[in-house]
Amino acid sequence: MKLESVRALKAELLSVPKAIVEAVASSTFLTAFSARHGAANRIMDDIALGVTAPDKKQFRLAVRLQRQGPLISMMTEQIRARAKGEIDVQYVGSIVKYAGPGETTAAFYRQKRRPLRIGSSISDVQTGFNSAGTLGCFVVRRQSPHYLGMLTNNHVIANENGNSAGDPVVQQGTLDGGKPSTGLVGELGPFIALKSSANFVDAAVGYLYEGVDFDPRRIGDRGALAGQVSVFELPPKATVYKVGRTTGQTKGRITAFDVDNVRVQYDAGVMRFDNQIEIEGAGNAAFSDSGDSGSLIVDAKRRAVALLFAGGDVGGSNGKGLTFANPIQTVLDALKVDLEQ
Fold first, then answer.
1. Buried b (16+ CB within 10 A) or exposed e, 122-132
2. pLDDT grade, residue 190 (50/70/90)?
3. Which of 183, 267, 269, 278 is the most buried (most CB within 10 A)?
4. Between β-strands 262-266 and 95-97, what pairing exists: parallel, antiparallel or unpaired?
5. Residue 167 and residue 183: Cα distance in Å, rounded?
6. The whole model's pTM is what?
C-alpha cells in the first residue's frame, strides 16, 4: 500500500467502525460475550496500529496486539480483510513505562558522572530512594533566558505530574545511590503533563545548575551527537542506537512508526500514546529495559531520532520485546527547547 492509504486505513480502524464491530460480534458466542462484558465497543483498546515499511515504496499496516482472546483474534482477521492482507501482526503483550531497576548490565552509567554524560542515571527525589531513569541529552530553552537543561521523561523526574517546577534532580538516580547532599545537579523545569486521553510525548526537562560540568555531545563510544532527523528521512528498518542507564549501549532497528493507541501502564493507570516509534533489538538482545527511560535514540550518523519511554518483553523478531519512543521533533516542540550541540 501507499503510505497515505495505510494512514487512512489506520484512522478508520481506530474509530472502530460499526460494521467491523458488528462483524466481530456476529457469532452467537461473541454476541453473548459482548453482552455480558460490554466488550465489543472496546475491542480496539487492546490493538495498536502503525505503519511498517518492508521497502522504500511499499508500506503495510502494523498491528500490535496487547491482549489475546477470541474477540481480539476475530478483530485481527477483520483488519486483515480490510487491509487485503497487507499487514504485519505481532503480539506485544503489556507495555510499561521504563523507569526502574531493570536487569542491569551497564554499571558505568549507574555511577556518579562528572562531567554529566548522555545515558547516565538520573531521577527526582520526591519518589523516595527507588527511582532511576536516563539522562537523554542536553537541550536549550528557545525563549530568553536560554536555560540549559537535561532532557528525559516526565515519569523519570516529574513523577507522573506529581512534582513541581523547582523540585530537585539528582545524578545518579536515587535507586543507584544518588542523594541531594551529594548528587544534586539541577531542578525540574517544564514537563508535558500525562493525560488520561491521548498523549504524544512523555517528556520533561531538568534545568542544569550553573557550574555543573557536562558533556553535551558524547554518545557512549559512538562519537558526538550530530543534529537530528525525522523517521521519514530514514530508510526502511533503519538501524538505531541508544545509551541507557540499565542496558548501556545497544543496537536495534525501527520496525514501525506512526503507531497509535499504544496503551502504557503507569503508576497512575494505563495511558494511551499516539504517533510513536517502535524498535526491536539487534541480534539476540533487547534494545532496552526498565531504567532506560529517557534515553536518546540516534541513527547510524548519530542524529537524534526519538526519546525512549516504554517497552515490553514480548514481541520482536528475536522475541526479546519491543521498545516505544516519542519522535524527537515532537518532544522538542512540545517542551519549546532545542538540542544543545
1. bbbbbbeeebb
2. very high
3. 278
4. parallel
5. 14
6. 0.92
